[in-house]
Amino acid sequence: MIGKIYLRVRQGWNPWRKMLSLIVKRRQLIVKAARFERQEGIIVSFTAIPERVSQLKYTILSILNGDEIPERIVLYVSEKTKKSIREQQDKVLNELLLIGYLEIREVKDVGPHTKLIYALEDFPGKAVVVCDDDIVYPPYWFHAIRARYHEVKGQQMVVAQRAHRVTYYPDGAIKPYADWEKEVPTVQGKAVIGKDLFPTGTGGVLFPPGSMPELTTTVSEFKELAPKADDIWFWFCALLNGNTFTLTDVKYQYEDAPEIPNYKSPNLYYDNVGGSANDDQFQLCQNYFKQKHNLQV
After folding, report:
1. What superkingdom heads the lineage (predicted)?
2. What is the chain's alpha carbon radius of gyration, rounded to the nearest angstrom?
3. Do the beta carbons of residue 204 and residue 191 sit within 8 Å?
């Protein structure tokens, strides 16, 4: 019993410990953004909602705390969220904006898809890594994704840090999301590749330049088919364009990448996974891509 209590306390304290460490190092990390060698040609793109504005600095600082850092970080937000950021006057964000490492671009909020669709249009010649706004990423995170990308560059592969595996019934029908193989294990020194891998944005996903079809950014389509399931929409679009998926050689571990506590913020996980909305949206996309684009999955 005592051991279980200790484990729960340790797990609960983990994000706070990491967040505190980042705040202590913030000056060093801002200087790093200004002077450290960046990985040219790769940007990190994400979005945020007003309820999470106060925690944005932790996600951004965690990326800067990495063994390698991207060319830049671009945050796509609605007018309402951008106003909240201005009102907050966060010193970390302001300094990163001042040196030009962080960009905040005001766009129409189209849900979680906002994290990728605008970056595809704004940076067609660059690889785009999408991530979530409520995760403290570990130091190896960006390096692992970047390293795998360079290993498979030119092979039409989308790179993921975390992925599930789509599973099938004997008759070929896809099983419900709850029955998929979760957290496909990474095998160090051995490539994990497959069209049945299903990347999740939480762990970070890299889309090479030109890897996604124009359909990806068609708001009317994904709003009708997968309004809350960007991972599903991006998966089908990637397959439509002939992509395969691959994992990094570093295992994704929740303890290394804890969620930032925010009890006011809505979480799509409970709607999509807990409420089985993933299955509904997946089925709609599957039917659409089969009927309109002859894509069999």
Report:
1. Bacteria
2. 19
3. no
Instruction: Give CA separation, 189 vs 158, 244, 263, in Å.
Output: 18, 19, 39
Number of domains in the chain: 1
Please report the pLDDT score of residue 81 as a whole number. Answer: 98
Q: For the chain, what is the largest distance between any 2 Cα atoms, rounded to a whole number of angstroms?
A: 58
For residue 142, give the nearest of 52, 46, 228, 16 by alpha carbon.
46
Report the candidate in 209, 176, 202, 215 with the shortest Cα–Cα distance to residue 267. Answer: 202
Would you call 49 helix, strand, or coil by DSSP? coil
Is 96 in a helix, a strand, or coil?
helix
* CA distance linking residue 126 with residue 59, whole number of Å: 22
Residue 259's domain is classified under what CATH number? 3.90.550.10
Give residue 81's domain range.
Answer: 2-293
What are φ and ψ of residue 187, in 5° steps? -110, 110
76-107 confidence digits (pLDDT tens): 999 999 999 999 999 999 999 999 999 999 99
Helix axes 2-24, 26-35, angle to 10 degrees: 50
Bridge partners for 160 per DSSP = 205, 247
Q: Pairing state of beta strands 127-130 and 38-47?
A: parallel
Q: Could you give the angle at which helices 56-64 and 2-24 cross, rounded to 10 degrees?
A: 80
Residue type, 198: F
Angle at Cα 235 formed by Cα 202 and Cα 243, nearest 5°? 115
- Write the CA distances from 31 to 37, 69, 80, 203, 283, integer angstroms: 11, 12, 30, 26, 47
- The first and second tokens of residue 112, run together, are 């979680």
- Single out the residue of 133, 126, 194, 129 nearest to residue 164, CA to CA: 194
Strand partners, 245: 158, 194
**Predicted confidence (pLDDT) at residue 8 exceeds the cutoff of 70:** no
